[in-house]
Design a protein that fits this description.
Length: about 180
């Protein structure tokens, strides 16, 4: 069942270039309001300091969060309530928070690259849209593991999450990215 704090794993046959082999962390979900999440495993070739000119020095990659509002910046972190206004998502993970306080904590070295992930854009679904995609088999819903964001290499995340789901998904996790490799 889809809920805030869950993961959506793209079905291996989902070829939409935005979501192919993607792992989406759900930050908001309501049948009446729709859903919001961030693709966890699609880095872009920029560091945060290249993207945001007045940002304190931190060697942190930026990820493609999704095709909606690609001119916005979002972040997930494990710094807890020291980032005022952050939303606890479970699994020791927090979403957003006071941007100026975040910059101060990074400048003070209280938040390091292994504590935070930045996302450009987000993934969003209007009411009923995600439910329809789930019915058509485009997504597999699974639980979030604390290590997925900060410790699992992004290129292994889809396979690792599929494998951890168990059962038939352990076989799906081993499917090659291209069927030409079969």
């Amino acid at each position: 069942m889809i809920a805030r704090g869950k993961l959506l794993l793209a079905d291996p046959y989902l070829y939409d270039p935005h979501f192919k082999r993607s792992v989406v962390f759900m930050t908001e979900y309501s049948p009446k309001e729709g859903a919001v999440g961030f693709i966890l495993n699609k880095p872009i070739s920029m560091k945060i300091n290249e993207l945001v000119s007045d940002f304190p020095e931190i060697n942190s990659a930026v990820y493609y969060g999704g095709p909606v509002a690609p001119d916005t910046l979002h972040y997930l972190h494990d710094a807890g309530d020291i980032v005022d206004g952050s939303v606890h998502m479970g699994s020791g993970l927090y979403w957003s928070g006071d941007y100026e306080k975040l910059k101060f904590l990074i400048q003070s070295k209280l938040i390091l690259p292994h504590n935070i992930r930045f996302y450009v854009g987000y993934s969003g679904w209007s009411p009923g849209q995600l439910e329809d995609e789930l019915k058509s088999g485009s997504w597999v819903v699974t639980d979030m593991e604390a290590n997925y964001i900060f410790k699992t290499p992004y290129h292994e995340l889809w396979s690792e999450a599929m494998k951890n789901k168990g059962g038939l998904y352990t076989v799906i996790a081993k499917m090659p990215d291209s069927f030409l490799l079969n």
